[in-house]
C-alpha cells in the first residue's frame, strides 16, 4: 500500500467514524426512530456532497453553503423530513430542490424511486453527475421550476420540499396520492418559517400541522410569483 493510498484509507475511516457519531448524537438522540432512515444516514457520505473547503464540517449539526446562494440542510433536518413522510420501500417520492443531491441520496436508500427538481441549472447538472458517479441509480434529476412539480411522474407517494414557499403550492398537492404526505417549509411572518407536514385526504382536501420552526433558502421561480393568491 502506497503512502497516498494509506492516507486516503485513514481519511475515509475518520469520515466513517464522524458519520456514525453524527447519527448517534444528532439524529438518534433527537428522536428519529425509523431504522431505514437511520441506516441511510449512516451509509450516505455527506462529505462527498459538500464543497472541498467544507469537508471538515460535513458531519457537524448545521447547514453548509454549496454555491449559488444555496445550502445543504443540516443532517437532523434531512432525517426529520425523510421520516416525516413515512417512506416505504415501494414508494415513489418527489423532491423539490436537489441542491448538491444529499437529500435525494438519503431518500434513494429508503424508497424505490426519487424524482428531484432543481431550478439552478449548474447545481442540478452537478448533482445529477455526482449521484450517477456514486451509484444512485434510482434518482432522476430534472432542471425546472419546482413549484410546478413533475406532473408526468405523479401521483407520487410523498413530496419533500427543501426551500421555503410563501404558501403550499397547489400543483404539488395535486401530484400527491390520497393518503400521501408532503413536508414543506412555509413562510410564517418576517424572518420566520414553519416546517409543515401536509397530508392529502381521500376527498382531495389536506390537513397540516407545524413540525417545528426552520430556516431555509426561498423557493424561487415563475411558478411562485404566478401562484400568489389573488394575483392575476
Give the helices and strands, then pairings.
Elements: H1 3-27, H2 35-43, E1 64-67, E2 70-72, H3 75-84, E3 92-96, H4 102-108, E4 113-118, H5 121-133, E5 139-143, E6 156-161, H6 170-174, E7 176-187, E8 193-200, E9 206-214, H7 222-226
Parallel strand pairs: 3-4, 3-6, 4-5, 6-7
Antiparallel strand pairs: 1-2, 7-8, 8-9
Helix pairs in contact: 1-2, 1-3, 2-4
Instruction: Report the order of strands and helices.
Output: HHEEHEHEHEEHEEEH
Per DSSP, what share of the residues sits in E-state strands of 2 or more residues?
25-35%
Outline, from the CA principal axes?
globular
Distance between the termini: 67 Å
Radius of gyration over alpha carbons? 18 Å
The mean pLDDT is 92
Could you give the order of strands across the largest sheet? 5-4-3-6-7-8-9
Annotation, overall tally of beta strands? 9
What structural class do helix, strand and pairing data support? alpha/beta
State the major sheet: 7 strands, mixed
> Please, how many helices?
7
- Oligomer kind: single chain
Helix content: 25-40%
Can you describe this structure?
With 232 residues, the chain is of the alpha/beta class. It contains seven helices and nine strands, in the order ααββαβαβαββαβββα. The chain has helices at 3-27, 35-43, 75-84, 102-108, 121-133, 170-174, 222-226, and strands at 64-67, 70-72, 92-96, 113-118, 139-143, 156-161, 176-187, 193-200, 206-214. The strands form two sheets. The chain has a seven-stranded mixed β-sheet. Strands 1-2 form a two-stranded antiparallel sheet. The protein starts with a helix and ends in a 6-residue tail after the last helix. 42% of the residues are buried. Mean pLDDT is 92; it is low at 1-7.
Amino acid at each position: 500500500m502506497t503512502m497516498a493510498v494509506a492516507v486516503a484509507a485513514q481519511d475515509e475511516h475518520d469520515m466513517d467514524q464522524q458519520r456514525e457519531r453524527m447519527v448517534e448524537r444528532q439524529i438518534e438522540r433527537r428522536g428519529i426512530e425509523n431504522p431505514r432512515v437511520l441506516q441511510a444516514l449512516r451509509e450516505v457520505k455527506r462529505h462527498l456532497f459538500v464543497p472541498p473547503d467544507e469537508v471538515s464540517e460535513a458531519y457537524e449539526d448545521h447547514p453548509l453553503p454549496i454555491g449559488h446562494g444555496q445550502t445543504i440542510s443540516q443532517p437532523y433536518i434531512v432525517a426529520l423530513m425523510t421520516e416525516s413522510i413515512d417512506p416505504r420501500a415501494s414508494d415513489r417520492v418527489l423532491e423539490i430542490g436537489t441542491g448538491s443531491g444529499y437529500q435525494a441520496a438519503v431518500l434513494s436508500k429508503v424508497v424505490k424511486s426519487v424524482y428531484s427538481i432543481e431550478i439552478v441549472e449548474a447545481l442540478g447538472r452537478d448533482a445529477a453527475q455526482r449521484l450517477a458517479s456514486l451509484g444512485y441509480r434510482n434518482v432522476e434529476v430534472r432542471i425546472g421550476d419546482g413549484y410546478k412539480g413533475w406532473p408526468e411522474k405523479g401521483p407520487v407517494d410523498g413530496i419533500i420540499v427543501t426551500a421555503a414557499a410563501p404558501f403550499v403550492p397547489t400543483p404539488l398537492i395535486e401530484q400527491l396520492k390520497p393518503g400521501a404526505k408532503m413536508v414543506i417549509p412555509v413562510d410564517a411572518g418576517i424572518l420566520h418559517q414553519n416546517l409543515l407536514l401536509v397530508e392529502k385526504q381521500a376527498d382531495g382536501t389536506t390537513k397540516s400541522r407545524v413540525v417545528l420552526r426552520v430556516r431555509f433558502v426561498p423557493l424561487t421561480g415563475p411558478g411562485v410569483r404566478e401562484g400568489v393568491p389573488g394575483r392575476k
